[in-house]
Design a protein that fits this description.
alpha/beta; 188 residues; Dihydrofolate Reductase, subunit A; 8-stranded mixed beta sheet; 28% strand
Length: 188
């Protein structure tokens, strides 16, 4: 069974977007060599990506552009190369290279993906997808970057989860920019 991993950023007060859905606060200094090496390393893997429609639209509007190739060439190459899935009941087609549109019931579609042979799958952004799949017990690992910032209001990553999800810490890393990566798995 393939692993499904969430990678997201949150603020110290637990928000992953501001009240208007903006995540620009999560962008780091372009000259931050430590952070850029970490992100480039993630993008160089052989995994696959899973998005909700809103995150997909945002990613597809940036990563295939010349600006993305100029700003972060390694990440742009990885994002454009990796197989991608977008979950949407309203989209007619997905135009970003290597993207498959999933139109069925979310948990059932992801169960099928996890049962197929292949590399791991990562969810980036896509808070409503994260909450639904967490509730369904389909997420194998949570990688959350806590940023040294308080927004005061916004959307939480687990908005809509109605049951407790006990987790077990499996790793952490502190970055020089003040961000902290914490990694959790569902507790047995």
């Amino acid at each position: 069974m393939r692993r499904l991993v969430v990678f997201n950023q949150v603020t110290l007060d637990g928000y992953f977007t501001d009240p208007k859905g903006d995540m620009s606060w999560a962008h780091k200094d372009p000259g931050d060599a430590e952070w850029n090496a970490f992100v480039s390393g993630n993008a160089s893997g052989d995994g696959e990506l899973l998005f909700g429609r809103v995150t997909y639209d945002m990613m597809a509007g940036f990563w295939p552009t010349p600006a993305a190739m100029e700003m972060m060439p390694d990440v742009a190459k990885g994002m454009n190369r990796m197989p991608k899935y977008v979950c949407s009941r309203t989209m007619k087609q997905a135009s970003w290279k290597n993207t498959t549109l999933l139109k069925g019931e979310l948990a059932a579609e992801v169960r099928k993906l996890k049962a197929e042979p292949g590399p791991g799958i990562a969810i980036l952004g896509s808070g409503s997808i994260v909450a639904q799949l967490a509730q369904a017990g389909l997420i194998d690992e949570y990688q959350v970057v806590v940023n040294p910032l308080v927004l005061g209001d916004g959307r939480t990553l687990f908005e809509g989860v109605t049951k407790r999800l006990p987790l077990r810490l499996t790793g952490s890393r502190v970055f020089g920019n003040g961000s902290v990566l914490v990694t959790y798995e569902p507790a047995p």
